[in-house]
Amino acid sequence: MEQSGSSKRLRIADIKLNSLLEITKAINLNAHIDELLKIYSDVLQRKLFIGKLMLLRKDENWRCILHYGIREDRYEAVVEHAKTYTSEREIKSIGGGKWPKNENFEIIVPVYHKNQPLAYVFLGDLNEESIGVSPAIKHLPFIQTLTNILVVAIENKKMAKESIKQAVFQRELDLAKEIQAILVPSKLPNTDALEIASYYLPYHEISGDYFDYIQLDESQFAFCVADVSGKGIAAALLMSNFQANLHALIEQTSSLTELVIRLNRKVIQTAKGESFITFFIAKYNTLTQSLHYVNAGHYPPLLHMEDTITLLKSGCPALGMLPELPSLKEGILTIHAPATFLAYTDGVIELENSENEEFGVEKLTDLFASNVTLHSNAKAINKSIMDALKTYKDKKEYVDDITLLSCRILK
């Protein structure tokens, strides 16, 4: 009998050692999680003769990642009851618990790492005779160790996957930032006849705002501001596509009306109704002093000329919202220098103070009027407006991208 008992103990030791080697080898070979769970299940069910098992793992919430021996129509209720044990810290018998519909489990095996619970193993229908020694006494520490190896491997796989996803996301983010850096002009005019200055503050690392200055010929130039709905990489890519289309089409079109119609079609083709773009564009002829503009659903830029503020509203709805633009109206003005424009995005107007009150168009208009009088250059106007916005918001955070584009026509 002693030899028989010794032989059984040796056989169990071999099972444990071989099981550890098998699952460790599979982990080193980067086996899929399903394969690791299958090895684990085979060890407990076919080698240690445990008739019923449930393995709960902590993700965002506790969830069952492996089970057998439970009727499927009782599974959800059993899992919910098992979650009531997820504060246990020691291996213990739970056979007296009120399990639903007699789906009893006898033992719980907690798996911890640095005082943090990683998993709980629930064991039932223990066949003590088949393995010749009480599992509750001899094999539970081994099961705890094997589970720990399995769960840590799953966690590492999850972390590796997240790391890869993060690396891909970071590369996409870097690419979007590179694209965005290309979008905005690197140099704006600063002469005795024309001065343009910008201020650009993205809410995140990348922005859905866009501004531009385009020299069309010796006597004509265009400037614009746009804002795409949405945030992040998708918004940046859509705006990149929009900028490319704008630069291509503005050379081919004879009027801003035609340009905006064609841009609207391009946005619809690209965004497929999931995003839209508010857009203001103006074209100025230095020989005729005529300014043509279209405001496509954008907050109206401000024009200060002859001690009067004019809101540039003429235009149409935002681009990408409708296949045809109703009542599109191109604004036409004669400019009497000096004249100063301020174009901006909604992050300026919708900035809130501690009382949740928006800054609003009226405050911006008053601020702009006073700054045109006080300051002699476009950059100083932008700085004064940003200083006022910072004071207004006080300790509240910016909640959107902010873009300012000031243009002074001096001759």
Structure, explained:
- The protein is an alpha+beta fold and 411 residues long.
- 42% of the residues lie in helices and 25% in strands.
- The chain has helices spanning 2-28, 33-47, 75-82, 128-131, 135-138, 140-183, 232-250, 256-271, 346-349, 360-374, 378-393; strands at residues 50-58, 62-68, 92-93, 107-113, 116-126, 194-201, 209-215, 220-228, 277-285, 290-296, 302-305, 308-311, 315-316, 331-334, 339-344, 402-409.
- The strands form three sheets. Strands 7, 8, 9, 10, 13 and 14 form a six-stranded mixed β-sheet that branches. Strands 2-1-5-4-3 form a five-stranded antiparallel β-sheet, with helices on one face.
- The longest helix is centred in the middle third of the chain and has 44 residues, at 140-183.
Report how far apart the termini are: 112 Å
What is the count of DSSP helices, taking H or I runs of 4+ residues? Answer: 11
Order of helices and strands: HHEEHEEEHHHEEEHHEEEEEEEHHHE
Rg is 34 Å
Give me the oligomer status. Answer: single chain
Identify the overall geometry: elongated
Mean pLDDT across all amino acids: 87
Number of strands: 16
The secondary-structure class comes to: alpha+beta
Helix content: 40-55%
Strand content range: 25-35%
Low-confidence stretches: none
Q: How would a textbook summarize the main sheet? A: 6 strands, mixed
